[in-house]
């Protein structure tokens, strides 16, 4: 009987185990998410007139200050003025919706981006942007957008992806380290999904608005390998000639794909030279430092002002001691080995510390004589290969910044008085008793041994 019972127990156990094995739920293998992304359809025809890097005359537009309207239509209405000035590349400060959470005040910073794929309603809409780009192209001017890759606003939808952002030891998203930019959250470039989304957003504007490149903000904060990754991707648009400008100073940015980055040191030296606290020769040192070991075809962006400078240091007529000083400083920035930048308002000697957190329209009727002189200076630079890419020879002096640019048979001699007093300058021996033409007026000029230059005046000679 015991044997029968034991046999029955074993049989039941076997049946139960077999039944359990057949009813255990089957777990399917993990399935990778499907990426259905497709590039948006291309709008318009790529602009064939994008200038070579050496030929760029860049003009920065702050839409809140550029017109009384403070929008894209206001810019459209003044495109002929920019063409007449001589600009061939328009850089638009960020045109995207601005964050509200933790706002830095006023209308908010344009560099606190709430949505990478939209136009700020304050400025208009996508059609307005397309019209500006199209009308600029008709006038022979390229248009580039300002791109903010280091951070977003706190109310950008990306903030839901916490791993896309840098965090402190407690897991809290943080602002960019080492800054006081509390209105923005720092992005995490170890996250590949965030990188992919950033690159797709860049491509969106090239395709949907037909823009001609980007000025990239705060590039030194972002890993160079991301710039290589993103710029390589953009360059796959091989029917487009894109302008890629870095607001950074690292030399490796050029090997990553940028054509231009910022001449921070040159500006710093220029400012203190006009303040009278450093020798003119320090500008030559800055030029040497900035171009040391750069690859062929790489350029520095030279400026006397921009949106940051104007808001922090003052207008050009403040920094460089008046209208004549502002023009003299521009000659140095535009003629000594760099790509010149103008910021809206400097061509009329606007005295404002333009606040880009609010609407602050420029008075375009001021100082037409300055505008005319800027036009002459830009026109000669555009015509002179020696100025753009010629070999530089410098002549040290305690009051005058003197240099020569030479390419082939073309020679250009630039003499700039950076002092608030008339200076009697001893002409370098190699140029004494030589004949030239005034590059701006066409008048014949014979240099003797001495030349008197009034305060902050300059002379540009050619032969």
Automatic annotation (TrEMBL):
<dbReference type="InterPro" id="IPR017853">
    <property type="entry name" value="GH"/>
</dbReference>
<dbReference type="GO" id="GO:0009313">
    <property type="term" value="P:oligosaccharide catabolic process"/>
</dbReference>
<protein>
    <submittedName>
        <fullName>Alpha-amylase</fullName>
    </submittedName>
</protein>
<dbReference type="GO" id="GO:0004556">
    <property type="term" value="F:alpha-amylase activity"/>
</dbReference>
<dbReference type="Pfam" id="PF00128">
    <property type="entry name" value="Alpha-amylase"/>
</dbReference>
<feature type="domain" description="Glycosyl hydrolase family 13 catalytic">
    <location>
        <begin position="60"/>
        <end position="381"/>
    </location>
</feature>
<dbReference type="InterPro" id="IPR006047">
    <property type="entry name" value="GH13_cat_dom"/>
</dbReference>
<dbReference type="InterPro" id="IPR013780">
    <property type="entry name" value="Glyco_hydro_b"/>
</dbReference>
């Amino acid at each position: 009987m015991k044997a029968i019972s034991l046999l029955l127990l074993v049989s039941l156990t076997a049946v139960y185990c077999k039944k359990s094995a057949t009813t255990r739920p089957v777990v399917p293998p993990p399935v990778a998410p499907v990426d259905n992304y497709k590039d948006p359809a291309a709008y318009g025809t790529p602009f064939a007139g994008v200038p070579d890097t050496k030929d760029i005359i860049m003009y920065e537009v702050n839409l809140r200050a550029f017109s009384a309207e403070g929008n894209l239509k206001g810019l459209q209405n003044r495109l002929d003025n920019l063409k007449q000035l001589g600009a061939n590349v328009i850089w638009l400060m960020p045109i995207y919706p601005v964050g509200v959470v933790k706002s830095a005040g006023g209308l908010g910073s344009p560099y606190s981006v709430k949505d990478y794929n939209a136009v700020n309603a304050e400025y208009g809409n996508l059609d307005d942007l397309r019209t500006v780009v199209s009308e600029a192209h008709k006038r022979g001017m390229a248009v580039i957008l300002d791109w903010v890759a280091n951070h977003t606003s706190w109310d950008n939808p990306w903030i839901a992806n916490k791993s896309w952002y840098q965090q402190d030891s407690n897991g809290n998203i943080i602002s960019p380290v080492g800054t006081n930019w509390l209105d923005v959250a720092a992005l995490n470039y170890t996250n590949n999904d965030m990188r992919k989304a950033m690159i797709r957003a860049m491509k969106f504007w090239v395709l949907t608005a037909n823009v001609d490149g980007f000025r990239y903000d705060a590039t030194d904060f972002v890993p160079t390998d991301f710039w290589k990754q993103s710029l390589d991707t953009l360059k796959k648009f091989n029917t487009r000639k894109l302008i890629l400008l870095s607001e950074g100073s690292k030399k490796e940015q050029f090997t990553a794909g940028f054509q231009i980055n910022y001449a921070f040191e040159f500006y710093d030296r220029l400012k203190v030279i006009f303040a009278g606290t450093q020798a003119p020769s320090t500008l030559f040192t800055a030029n040497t430092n900035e171009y040391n070991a750069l690859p062929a075809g790489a350029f520095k962006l030279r400026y006397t002002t921009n949106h940051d400078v104007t808001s922090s240091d003052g207008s050009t007529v403040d920094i460089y001691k008046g209208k004549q000083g502002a023009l003299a400083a521009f000659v140095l920035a535009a003629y000594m080995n760099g790509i010149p930048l103008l910021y809206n308002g400097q061509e009329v000697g606007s005295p404002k510390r333009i606040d880009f957190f609010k609407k602050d329209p420029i008075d375009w009727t001021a100082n037409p004589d300055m505008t005319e002189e800027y036009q002459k200076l830009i026109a000669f630079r555009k015509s002179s290969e020696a100025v753009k890419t010629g070999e530089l020879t410098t002549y040290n002096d305690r009051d005058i910044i003197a240099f020569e640019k030479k390419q082939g048979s073309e020679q250009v001699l630039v003499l700039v008085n950076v002092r608030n007093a008339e200076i009697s300058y001893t002409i370098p021996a190699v140029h004494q008793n030589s004949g030239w033409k005034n590059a701006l007026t066409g008048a014949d000029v014979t240099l003797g041994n001495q030349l008197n230059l009034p305060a902050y005046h300059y002379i540009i000679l050619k032969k």
